Amino acid sequence: MWPPRSQPLAGLAVFFILILCLLAGGARAEETAEPRLVNVGVYVSPPFVVSQSDGYSGMAIDLWEKVAGRLKVVSDYRQFQNYGELVDAVSKGAVDVAVTNLTITESRAKIVDFTHPWFDAGLRIMVPDNDGTSPSEVFGRLADSGHLRTYAWIAVCIFLATMFMTLFDRRFDMDFPTKWRDGLAESFYHVMSIATSGKTNRRNLFGWLGRAWQAMWMVCGIAIIAYLTSSIASVMTVAELSNEINSLADLRGKVVGVRAGSVSEAYVKKLYITTKPYDHIDEAAAALARDEVDAVVADSPVLEYFVFTHPDMHLKVIGNTFQPDKYGFAFTVGSPLTRPASIAVLAAQERGDLEAIRSRYFGFAP
């Protein structure tokens, strides 16, 4: 009777042993499986994505590498020229994920899946850091206002006055130089002395009548100086006021540089402000330095980092942050990596890894 009872127990034991072997084999197979290759699209935007000879670095890259390590995936990077091309590539499945300082917006969320936000930002304005108006600009404004035409008439009057005084003194002043060159130089000196200072040491040859004539010339000279001073001062004041940009409201009537396909381009266009798109921030900054645009509107951290790392370009970031936004990684719609990536981002925030990465590039904690 005992052998029949022991056979079921033995079979059951063999069954459990087989199950344990299968589970152990599956675990070993999972451990030895090759990591999944993920096609990562990037857009160079320092300090979030920086192109190097051996690959890419930056805050977004460092954070993504931590996320990729948690997801057990290997990244194959591919660079795109602007935000628009990058988002389009993710939406069409040309790449699996977009890694850069990509703003989460409603229009983008309709065609890609975003992770949990990992950076709070906003837009600001970058302008030239100069303390005055260039001579060429003052000259142009003087011409536009008609002052240069008046200056030309004043020059003609000075020439005629010089000729008149030369002819007059050659006839009535016995001590006047006999050579025309010396005589013209002497008369020109007296005319310019009256025009610039209202004074002259010219001899009076006709008593009280001569003094009255000299007084009239002095009044004319003072009027000329007053006109020259006031016209130049007014033109420079207007030029400085018109060039001064302190806020978003001052961009009306200006040409603003933006990055192609960016949130800043869409936002500035909504305000009916003329925009000029560039693929990268250094191109927009170069255009600003060449006076091709009056200002550049872009993400605040990008502008601040660029100004800090390019002091030779004499640029500055002005005004308060407007149009606040958040950055996130973007996956193809329905990607199984979106949720795990969001969890990985949250884990990096809770452990302090994200704060450490940010401090590495910005020098301060969020």
From TrEMBL:
PANTHER family: IONOTROPIC GLUTAMATE RECEPTOR
Source organism of this protein record: Pseudaminobacter soli (ex Li et al. 2025)
Protein name: ABC transporter substrate-binding protein
Keywords noted in UniProt: Glycoprotein, Ion channel, Ion transport, Membrane, Receptor, Transmembrane, Transmembrane helix, Transport
Source superkingdom: Bacteria
Any one GO molecular function term: ligand-gated monoatomic ion channel activity
Domain Solute-binding protein family 3/N-terminal stretches: 37-365
Bilayer topology annotation: Multi-pass membrane protein
GO CC annotation: membrane
